Amino acid sequence: MDYPFAFGSATYGELFTDREIESERLMMNFRNGINTILISPRRWGKTSLVIKTAEKMHDKSIKIVRFDTFSCRNEEEFYQLFATEIIRQTSSKINEWVDHARQFLSSLVPRINVGMSPETEFSVTLDFSDKQAVNEVLSLPEKIAIKKKIRVVVCIDEFQQIAGFSDSLNFQKRLRSFWQLQKSVTYCLYGSKKHVMTKLFSRQSMPFYKFGDLMFLQKIDRSNWVKFIVGRFKKTGKSVSAKIAGQICDSVDNHSHYVQQLSWLVWAHTTKIAGDEEFRKAEEELMTQNSMLFYRYIEELSAYQLNFLRAVAEGNHDQLTKKAILNKYNLGTSANVSRLKSALENKELIDIEMKKVTISDPVFCKWIRKELCK
Ligand SMILES: Nc1ncnc2c1ncn2[C@@H]1O[C@H](COP(=O)(O)OP(=O)(O)O)[C@@H](O)[C@H]1O
Ligand SMILES: [Mg+2]
Hints:
The protein has helices at 20-31, 46-56, 75-89, 94-104, 118-121, 133-148, 168-179, 194-202, 222-235, 242-251, 256-269, 276-299, 303-313, 323-328, 334-346, 362-372, and strands at residues 36-39, 62-68, 111-113, 123-125, 151-157, 185-191, 213-216, 239-240, 273-274, 350-353, 356-359.
């Protein structure tokens, strides 16, 4: 049987909905050598979109390489991963991997490990004592592209991570200086932490300024979600009305991950036809299932930060520096509020758009109202 819904990792196949326009735009960029920067809060669907787009491109002359820098703590780990994935994903032949590593990473003395299952265990270990060697790594996709007479699209997920490397600015300069000269390679850089990504790509003083097409991924529309939810129930032998499906969307503010999670819970509680009772139980369970995580979020926060979240959760999105609000929620001075904002934004707990502050996670927002605003 088909899975009715899925969440927790990037989604694909029939569990993927909408995003036609975004996917077209990405394909167009990939085909025409336009670099793309894709930004949205976590769990809205960036990774899924890029995977889906890569799947849809049936162009033999374009190779799409995807990897995730979330676990990279420094430049060297980045280069290591970059080299390994470029080599591995531009060819399906193990001997070609070895050839490419030897041919194009000569000064790096690559140690090549191929394990029992080459798909997962292939890696190139680099020796960085020669600083010039980094140039070879960054030139790798262009060299492979030229040799194989193909074009390469390099998609790097969780790109915001590089902003935290030590001496990140010089690192960014180095990347840009190589990447902008490559004729056969296109980059798609995507990540969350909007303020970090925006700073990397839209500040004039930053190396990646005007690097490519800047896309801010929006939420999937409610009407599309409703169709999707009703369709998935039907496909898997149950049914739900458009009204209940709409309530699912509203309950989690059309947040991709949560729409899938809450739909799943409603589905799981339903024998045949989902009604108000099933919806109510599912909503309650969504809160319970996430509350451990939410406790962990707040454990790390200061009293001021908690007060600030309370103020936002209770609907004060754009008047957080008004005197009455500062007093009511005990937020200290308005200068303190600025500090609170940037700390919480950095933890990805809040989003700020046109000075309007919202809590990024809609279920966390409800939980704050329920547990902390009594
Ligand atoms: N286009 C989509 N259709 C259906 N569900 C989606 C879609 N995009 C995202 N989701 C849901 O959201 C979750 C998070 O998506 P993901 O691509 O990992 O987001 P991000 O990379 O922005 O953090 C997925 O596991 C899935 O449940
Ligand atoms: Mg992702």
